[in-house]
Amino acid sequence: MASSSTATSTAVTDVNAVAEADGPTKSRSIGPLAALLPFLRPYRGRIALAVLFLVLAALATLAFPVALKALIDNGLVATDPGERMLALREHFGALFAVGVALGLFSAARFYFVTWLGERVTADLRSAVYAHVLTQSPAFFETTRSGEVLSRLTADTTLVQTVVGSSLSMGLRNTVMGLGALAMLIFTNPVVMAQVLGVLTLVVLPALIVGRRVRGLSRASQDRLADASAIASEVLVAMPVVQSHTAEAREARRFSDAAERAFTTAIRRTQVRSALVAFIISATFGALLWGLYQGTQAVMRGEISAGHLGQTVVFVVLLTSSVAVLAEVWGDLLRAAGATERLMELLAARSPVAEPAQPRALPPRAADAGRGASVSLRDVLFHYPSRPQTAALDHVSLEVKPGETVALVGPSGAGKSTVFQMLLRFYDAQRGEVLFDGVPVQTVALAELRSRIGLVPQDSVIFSTSALENIRYGRPEASDEEVFAAARAAQADGFLRALPEGYATYLGERGVRLSGGQRQRLAIARAILKDAPLLLLDEATSALDSESERAVQAALAEAMRGRTTLVIAHRLATVIHADRIVVLEAGRIVDIGSHAELLQRCALYQRLAAAQFDSAAAVSSSEADATSAELS
Ligand SMILES: Nc1ncnc2c1ncn2[C@@H]1O[C@H](COP(=O)(O)OP(=O)(O)OP(=O)(O)O)[C@@H](O)[C@H]1O
């Protein structure tokens, strides 16, 4: 346990270190298991019951050899056959009673211990998952989601084995072993001293080898996590994989990772197997030695046959306890590796910190019908992984309530980064980001984000019904409100036409909807959320003109009465924007209306010519207007 402090101090406190913690283990003890204590603490009552039944079961086991001795020494001595029969029945009755007690106590112990294992694992899983969900995007840049999933399943399962079985096996065998030891010392000190000598020779190497098992355990869990990470990455990108006919390549990449996990697991198993062989043969040796000594003593008339029988059972109990304990030690070390890793995830601190004393945003009612104001003041920001390149380079922008501002610029200009700043996914290194005049760092994250509706470029559809999908941003909304939002987003028609209408299950990632339908569903979600600021990242993929019109109408509805920042890829959008901000390499190059920028901004002219003209879905009248303006 001495190393638990080491484990805590090495527990990763920043997100980057989580990803780097793939290396070998830092401490080689069961110390990290101490981190499970807070998870066990709420269930003190259950633990007490488990321990009670565990001790009772161990005592019943220890009572067995005593009853056996009584049977051999007393049950068989009566000379009268009738009396002997009666005595025998009594002794067998006593043995049976011990057996029944053992059965009942063991069942109760099993129930409580397994309950604890399941409970603690479920709590741990939920705690780690909930914690991971609070991490900023920086965490997910460095930690693969498949790896987190593997931690949540494979590592917690190891912990479950320990809490739900190994710990109780360990405790039971400790109690039984100590009991057998005490009884042996009490009844047969000479044999005892010898057995103990042999056992020491067994335990020491087992402990030493066990350390290596733990290192290998963590390594094999890590390799397993690698395989899971590959699978989860590929499974969500199946169309890309299949269109590149990369199935065989991806299958090989996974099987290579699985193979590495296998090799590491086998190395661990080899070490463990050698340990098992050693432990079993050595403890067997100890047992036989005890038996040999005892037989001699009986022959010399020093002890009774019953005494020998009792001694043998005690020695069996003692040696098997030691053997089990060595096994359990291996399990504990394995689980320590898994716990260490889970605790690293739990210790990861998001660099986007909640303010200690959050300031309230101005009441929402005041914004109703006009939207929020947002400001970026001299914002300098680089992504944590790219400290040399400023993604936003001294950007200042004031957006008034109700205004629609389009962001345009070449790829990598920093348009999405502006959104990330407003949502406070990252904090700027310099400058200020204000929402309704309040610096975003001083507002509770939940409050800030509740005021922002986001329609991302790739509409995310969850694997649930259409109704629940729209309700995602405001779970308490009534069905009627959902229908109204869907109508406003031009989604009501196609949703009602689905086999089960709004109750239709949309499949994983909405694969049953077309691109335009997915967008409208995402817009309905934003409309229902009814936030004063709308961040809209227009989809770049072209839609057919009918679908495009529907999406544009939906967007117009979503923008009504709100402040809107839109990353624009469509001509219709820039034409209708109040102002257009032209970004390049993290700087604002120019701000103006479409007509003004066409007049004076060379970059905008290039963008307009290349980007908007080629947008297939631009309605013909608008395209004509632009051509006229451009020419
Ligand atoms: N998570 C990230 N980590 C590191 N660098 C990033 C990250 N996201 C974006 N960048 C970099 O920051 C710069 C601005 O990116 P941003 O995504 O804001 O551009 P954009 O204008 O939205 O581009 P696009 O139109 O292609 O989406 C780019 O150089 C990009 O490579």
Question: Which features does this protein show?
Answer:
631 residues, alpha/beta, ABC transporter transmembrane region fold, Rossmann fold, 2 domains, 6-stranded mixed beta sheet, 4-stranded antiparallel beta sheet, 22 helices, disordered N terminus, binds adenosine-5'-triphosphate, ATP-binding cassette subfamily B protein, nucleotide-binding, ABC-type oligopeptide transporter activity, ATP-binding
Structure in a nutshell:
The chain has 631 residues and is α/β, with parallel strands linked by helices. It is 64% helix and 9% strand. The strands form two sheets. The protein has a six-stranded mixed beta sheet with strand order 6-7-8-3-9-10, with helices on both faces.
**Main sheet?**
6 strands, mixed
Structural classification: alpha/beta
Low-confidence stretches: 1-27, 614-631
Instruction: Give the DSSP E fraction (strand runs of 2 or more residues).
Output: 5-15%
Number of beta-strand segments: 10
| Radius of gyration, taken over Cα atoms and rounded to an integer in Å | 35 Å
The global form is elongated
Quote the distance from N terminus to C terminus: 78 Å
Mean pLDDT: 81
Annotated CATH architecture of the largest domain: Up-down Bundle
Number of helices: 22
Approximate helicity band: 55-70%
Please name the fourth-level CATH homologous superfamily of the largest domain.
ABC transporter type 1, transmembrane domain
- Ligand inventory: adenosine-5'-triphosphate
Any idea of the CATH class of the largest domain? Mainly Alpha
Can you tell me the CATH topology of the largest domain? ABC transporter transmembrane region fold
Strand order of the largest sheet: 6-7-8-3-9-10
Number of domains: 2
Domain ABC transmembrane type-1: 48-334
Organism: Rivibacter subsaxonicus
Protein name: ATP-binding cassette subfamily B protein
Transmembrane segments: 47-72, 92-112, 175-208, 274-292, 312-333
